Amino acid sequence: MLELDLAGRIGALELNVRAAVAPGECLAVAGPSGAGKTTLLRMVAGLRRPDSGRVRCGDEMWLDTSTGACTPPERRRIGYLFQDYALFAHLSLWRNVAYGMDGVARGERRARAVALLDRFGLGARAGERPGALSGGERQRVALARALARRPRALLLDEPLSALDARTRAAATRELSTLLTELDAPTLLVSHDFGEAALLADRVLVIDAGRVVQAGTPAELVAAPASSFVADFTGAVVLYGRAHRGEHGLTAL
Amino acid sequence: MSFGGRCFAVLLVAALAATLAFLSLPLVAIFVDVGPAELLASLDDPIAVDALRLSLQTTAAALAVILALGTPAAWLLATRSFPGRSLAMTVVELPLVVPPAVAGIALLAALGPGGLLGGLLAASGLELVFQTAGVVVALVFVASPFYVRGAQAAFESVDAAQLEASRTLGAGEARTFARIAVPAALPGLAAAAALAWGRALGEFGATLIFAGSLAGVTQTAPLTIYERFATDFTGALALSAVLVALSASLLLGVKLSTSALAPRDARA
What pTM value is reported for the model? Predict the structure, then answer.
């Protein structure tokens, strides 16, 4: 269980988000650009400190500003998928994947990394540098690298937005299969409700740092609580009056 | 292309040609004036050979000190904001604008006998003036800004997301520095180190005033060239030619190796 309760000021934005993600569940935090999504993810990872709040993963308290407790990012055991993947350009693919394997004996790391890359269809290219890869391939290496640590929580920052339309469909399928197999809680942020709905079990819609509605993707689409959520989930709202005609409702 | 545009293009090419001609002419002249026979003869001269050996030893020692201290210092300046950071950066740049002779006087006032720390140095049995160690001190003083500034710029251009990725993958700050930041910044670090080495190799004023010009002890190649110049112009030219060749090959070597080192796509 990943529980977070974070508050803080980021420039003009007042962030205030409380959420809990169950093991094996994928929660998406979705909202327009500048709503504080990436900042939220960075706070959970320990890359940024909130003004006040708590982050707890299972029985580990990662952050509690009331006691001053703060676990540095390298000891939180998270898998973080960066928006532009942040692969290490000077290391080969297998060394990228093996980078976070602290618990694994040195001699076994290469075999483990290649096996993991194999799962993502890139085992044969384990010796190459990331510079030669396409966007979709980079994402798969970044995912393999994040999973190689056996993370206690997976954090995904806009996992599909950097991909072109064709790669995106395949990547969505791969990622949703992966997420159903994973037993760690997953927190995903996205500016695209479609992306969030495809991958997540539940979605929190945030605007200007605050949660405006939470629910399953179907619930949000069926009953948006505000015109903002309706717009964001892609509903087409018609303005005007409706009256009953011969063939059902007709808009005027 | 319009007439005005063509004129401007001609102007640009002419400016570059004039700059190149002015910068290369004196260096070419050295090699025109010195025949290969004289060059070889000068290398037979034990004083010249001693001076070159001393130059290589002292610049290598100075470069080692600069790399060891300058690399972490540049990393700190590049990655943290702290009160006094711009002051620190100004202090680092100060030796660039201080005339070398002034640097020599200043080093004497600080570390010479009777200087600020002179008593302390004497008590610990460390002598710098008229000693080879003094040459190294002078070289570190004048050359370190070239490295620290370049290294800071190189570290600043490292993709911050890669550093954060390293942290989330279990590497602490020290390991992230050693395994991600330094390799990613390596081409820039090497170029900065080459500049610092080149500056140290040519150092004259601060060395002369602080460490003196004792043959075999503090007389580096530039000091020997100056001494020769009064009595043996050809000998001075020959030694100059060797220094030019050394510096040029150093610069070329770094340029070639950094283009080989640089990843094809720095922002993977």
Answer: 0.83
